Amino acid sequence: MTLKNKKILFIVGGGISAYKSLDLIRLLQKNSVSIKTILTKSGKEFVTPLSIAALTKNKVYEDIFNKNNEAEIDHISLSRWADLIVVLPTTANFMTKLSIGKAEDLATTVLLASNKDILLVPAMNVRMWLHKATQKNVKILQDYGYHFVGPQKGEMACGEYGEGKMSSPRQIFSYLKNYFNRKNIVKNKNFKALVTTGPTREYLDPVRYISNESSGKQGYELALALKKMGIKTTLVVGPSNLNFSKDLKIKKVISANNMLDEVKKLLPVDIAICAAAVADYSPVKKNKNKIKKDATNLSLIKLEKNPDILDFLGKNNKHRPKIVVGFSAETENIIFNSKSKMKNKYCDLMIANDVSKKGTGFNSDYNKVAIIHKNGKIQNIKKNKKSYIANMVAKIILDKLLMNDKNIN
Ligand code: C5P
């Protein structure tokens, strides 16, 4: 059973929909989910601690400071206990607090200290939901990695109609079932991924090299997103100034040939994403000493073609990853060029981006991409943080992998 023995920490917020938390808790309880609850001060205006405690058979946490037992309410252990944290309902005010990292009560402190996935279930008036301030917070929170379910369109408690209605307990229940189902499959299948990122450096002599502007950020964010999904991920990165998380397995390389060697060592994997801006050429000969200023004939620097790592992975007969993903940075005819690149390099997905505009792509925190599928389907993702795009792309890749696996088994 997907949900059996899963541990969910509920944070019940202050909105009229708080009463629906009781229905959801009952539904989960019937499916053998363990539930602990934090009731916020305003949540208490809508539901009582007693009704929640009666359903969950667990004590309800309210204050960060407990006069009777100071060791008992530990914001760290509450978050560590849970497999998932669900905030229901998530009000506009609560979202603002999360977006600026407040830790003013037990609920906000637990969330700030959490190392778990957090699901927000917004519920508010349509104007509040559509307000630019709220929408800005949604983007910030998505970028921080919070998950959302809803809101839905419908008639609200205040009598108005529109987007802002909380998802029903049934809808949230299905979301949770699906969420844990995917987690279980990923864990049991022991999926592995490799991501290449950053530039490569092709040395002419001990101090000079051919390289490019790539920061490695998009590939790094992708590796983090895959890892968060439970996939064993290794990032193969060319020279980059990024500060990498210690939690991620990293292989540092310099040249295209080094990168290919590391990639080969990592095979077999289920997913390969080539986000690196690999130099296309390297000097045939690397000068042992620094080339002198007075060298007259610079055409002496002969270049040869580098190996194409993506092409190698896409064509690989022995260990072809189940999903091979390429990146395509273009300045013109973006979709057309990316489609042919996708075909030539035998990819399952191609992430195309326009690098002719400033503010996205190379060396930026933002990106704007089109995801091209093998069947010709194109998903355009508006300009957003690279972390947001990474989460979206990682989800699409996992969906594809799970679908393939279903068809194979
Ligand atoms: O043909 P182009 O270099 O534009 O293709 C880009 C895609 O190919 C990217 O996914 C990039 O990581 C990959 N690539 C590679 N090895 C190369 C050149 C490109 O893996 N030598």
Describe this structure in words.
The protein has 2 domains: 7-186, Rossmann fold (3-Layer(aba) Sandwich), CATH 3.40.50; 190-404, Rossmann fold (3-Layer(aba) Sandwich). 35% of the residues lie in helices and 24% in strands. The protein has helices at residues 20-30, 49-56, 75-81, 92-99, 106-112, 126-130, 132-144, 169-189, 217-228, 256-266, 309-315, 334-344, 386-408, and strands at 7-12, 34-39, 60-61, 84-90, 117-122, 147-148, 152-155, 161-165, 192-197, 202-203, 209-210, 232-237, 249-252, 271-274, 281-283, 303-305, 323-330, 349-354, 366-373, 378-385. Helix 1 packs across helix 8 and helix 9 packs across helix 13. It is elongated and about 85 Å long. The relative contact order is 0.09. The site of cytidine-5'-monophosphate has 15 residues, from helix 11 and strand 17.
Keywords:
alpha/beta, 2 domains, Rossmann fold, binds cytidine-5'-monophosphate, 6-stranded parallel sheet, 8-stranded mixed sheet, 13 helices, 409 residues
Helix/sheet category: alpha/beta
Q: Which ions, cofactors or small ligands are bound in this entry?
A: cytidine-5'-monophosphate
So, the CATH homologous superfamily of the largest domain? Answer: CoaB-like
CATH class of the largest domain: Alpha Beta
Q: Mind telling me the C-alpha Rg?
A: 25 Å
Number of helices: 13
Beta-strand residue percentage: 15-25%
Q: Judging by the overall fold, what is the CATH architecture of the largest domain?
A: 3-Layer(aba) Sandwich
Mean pLDDT: 91
Low-confidence stretches: none
Q: In the CATH scheme, what's the topology name of the largest domain?
A: Rossmann fold
Sheet with the most strands: spatial strand order: 13-12-9-14-17-18-19-20
